Each structure stands twice: as C-alpha cells, then as structure tokens.
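Quick question, first post here. What does this chain look like in 3D?
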Amino acid sequence: MDYNGSRAFLSEEQLIYTITVPLSTSIILANAVIVLGIALNRQLHNTPNYFFLSLLVADLCTGVALPFIPLMGLNRELSFGSCMVAHVFPNFLFLAFLLNLVMVHYERYICIVDPLHYNNLWMHRNFPLALLAAWLPPLLYASLPSFGWNNWTENGTTCCSYRRVFPNAFIFLEVYGLVLPAMLVIAAMTGRVLLITRGQLRDICRLHRSVERGNRTSEQEHRLNLRYTRCVVAVSLTFLACWVPYLIYMHVCIAFLISETRWSSTMHIVLSCTGIGSMAVVPLVLGLANRQYTEPAHKILQKLRDR
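> Answer (accepted):
Ran it through. Tokens below.
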C-alpha cells in the first residue's frame, strides 16, 4: 500500500470510529441497564424474559462488533485466517441478533394471538433447544466461507476484502433468503397484533356503551383510542427510524454488487453505520418502554440524586 493509499485508509478508519464508537457505547450501556433490571427483579426471572435476555446479549455483542462491520468494506492487508475472522464473526453476531429478534416477536405474538396455548408453546417446553436454534444456525451459516465457500485465491496478495470472502451467491442468499424474510415476518406479526388490538378495543368500547346505555363517546373511550393511536404512531416511527435505514443500506449494497462498480467509501461507511446501528436500537426500544426493566436504574439514579 502506497503513501496516498495508506493515508486514505487511515482517514476512512478514523471516520468509522468517529461514527461508531459513540453509537456502540450507547448501545452497550443501554443493554447493560436493561440486563441489570432483569437480573435484579426476581419477578422477571421467567422464560419470556430469558428469551428477551438472549436478545439483549446478542444486541450487546452487535454493539461491540459495530465498529468492525464498516471495516469489512475496506481493503486491508490480512492473512487468510485473520480475514475470515474479521468478516465471519461480525456477520455471525448480526444474524444471531436478527434470529433472536424474530424469536422474541414470535413468542409475544403467540401470547396475544393464542393465549390459551401460550404456556404449551414448544419454546417454553424446550427452552435450551430454542436458544440453541437462535444461535447455532447463524454460526453455521456465517462460517461457510471459512470452510471453502469463498473467492479467496492464492495469488500472492494478502488483500482482505468482502468480495474475496463472500461470494455473490452467499450474499444474495443471506439478504433475500434470511434477512429480508425475517424482517417481513416481524412486520407481519406486528401488523397482526395491531389489528387484533384494534378489534379488542372496539369490543371494549361497545361493551362500555351498552353498560352506560348511551351512544355518545365517553372520556374513557377517548383515552383508549388515544392510547391506541399513540401505539400505532410509536410502531410506525420505530419502523421508519430503525428498519428503513438498514433496508436502504442493504439494497444499495446489492445494487453496487450487481453492477460490480466501486462506490464511495464514505457513503458505504455512513450507510453501514446508520443501517446496522438503527437495527441494534430495536431491542432497546422494546426494553426501555417497559418500566419493570428500567425500575432498578431509576432507583439508583434517585438515590444518587437524593445524596
């Protein structure tokens, strides 16, 4: 690598750390607060919260690996083993995070859609197997380039790039066979839950009117409708803020991969940091919205404030 190339690499690396280190630190600290809240509250020591705890661990690991994910788009001088670790391990953590997110949404979806059979759910009866299913398949798939499915050729160079590690078929299968279906499943389950909630809200309002024997909308109905509207707005904003940036990043990557043109490193860094970072915020939104998870942190802050 010549002087100009080395200088450009250092500037790109500095840009990556400038963007990712504050974001990564925030993700790690927020996950630690929620994990502490679950650990200190014995009432939360149950199977659903253990699944959520697994998601928080995966999210925390994603926060740790966040500064290394944009580096995958840069060309570095690394040996075969080091190059594989630098690409395979962050990819495994991201896939494990995504599968844990699907599992948590599915567990809560069944709780609302089919509450009578909720306790007999296979995930509750075989909790260790469910956790293994959330972590082992991502590890096996992410490790495939290490076992030969790669573009690495012994041409005398030690240049490490994602094009030499991940074949196009591997990237297409991961994006359109794993990541995108998982996101669609989560969106479908969330939409179904909102529809069920809307139907239950209408039934409650109808029963309330029959008890009150009046056709006018009461103040309580207004509060229920307002609360549901806030819920829909919160879900919509979460989708726009957390999922849309990653969707943009994913399809931009695929577009440049198909065209086989070299794109701006700065644009790649910004898109990858915002895309992966926004995805990692989803469990934090779910956790920080629950007062039971944040109650120990509030008590500690209250004691510090009183002192």
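The chain has a mean pLDDT of 82.
The chain has eleven helices and two strands.
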